[in-house]
Amino acid sequence: MKKSLIALAVLAASGAAMAQSSVTLYGIADLAVVKAKGSSAALASGGVSTSRWGLKGSEDLGGGLAANFNFEQSVNLVDGTTGNGFNRQAWVGFSGGFGEIKLGKMWNAYDDIVGATSPLFDSGALTTNNLAPSYALEAGNPGNAVYYATPSFGGVSGAVSTTFKTGETNARVSAFHVKYEGGPLFVGLAHEQQKDDLSADLKLTRLSASYDFGAAKLLASVGQVKDVADDVTIGVDVPLSSALTLSAGATQVRPEVGDNGTRYGLAAAYGLSKRTTAYTGFYKDSKEAGDGHLFAVGVKHSF
Fold it and tell me: What is the pTM assigned to this prediction?
């Protein structure tokens, strides 16, 4: 009898522990047909969002404290290849009343803001922001990093991130952001510095804002890469029905040298279900910069 009671107690404790922790498998499968100026039509993985799969989990440690992790890898749907290891995210951390801290490889504090108000659904292939130097995400998730985000105070929150110095050049990427999210209004300011012992000392700043009127959502951002270029983006998202949304935008980069100029774009997304969306769109440059123009049609499925 005692053994039976002990066994039941162990099972009950085990069930309680399992109830306090969770692991989720998730992903995005996004494939488009893309036609750029001067090129033949071709399949492209990640027309709107990078195709990926990942595992994330959380364990309740009690007292409002939780231990969290996230592993995420890109997937190329054109040829079935994957990124090198968990090339998008690989981190462990804690969250609670103090906010959240992450250690490892994660999107940094600058990236949290940089695409928040991008027109054309912040699409990987289509957004006009692809022309803007301050939108560049080469150092968006550099790894070897520490990230801290505050809790929200009346809609105001912030985050800071930095990497430990790496390699022979002591390369380091540091960033911060402050944002306000309240009702229909969003405003976010972010700054990033990429520095090493050789010549790199890039300073990127971006201010993003949006306001949702219901019938339309206005989008705007201004960015700067110090001593390189400035950019301005405006856009609008218009929900034509519960399933169909139209998005338009334009980005201008100054000075107009090299690939800089103005890019205009228009896109539409139709929700076939809660997890599957069909989309199409195009952009066109005002001068012979970048691709000149690009058209895409595709489908995005989330799980």
Answer: 0.87
Predicted pLDDT of residue 18: 47
Residue 133 and residue 221: Cα distance in Å, rounded? 13
**Can you say how many angstroms the Cα of residue 37 is from the centroid of all Cα atoms in its chain?**
27
Q: Which domain holds residue 119?
A: 24-302
- Counted domains in the chain: 1
Q: What is the 3-state secondary structure (H, E, C) of 54-105?
A: EEEEEEEEECCEEEEEEEEEEECCCCCCECCCCCCEEEEEEEECCEEEEEEE
Contacts of 117 (CB under 8 A, 6+ apart): 186, 188, 208, 209, 210, 219, 220, 221, 233, 235
- Which pLDDT value is given to residue 138? 64
> pLDDT, tens digit, for every residue of 167-213?
778 889 999 999 999 999 999 999 999 998 887 799 999 999 999 99
Residues of the chain with pLDDT under 70: 1-19, 137-139, 256-258, 288-291
Q: What are the angstrom distances between the C-alpha of 156 and each of 132, 181, 211, 251? A: 27, 7, 16, 28
Interior angle at CA 119, CA 115 and CA 120, nearest 5? 110
Assigned domain for 48 exists? yes
CATH for 28: 2.40.160.10
Could you tell me if residue 84 is inside a domain?
Answer: yes
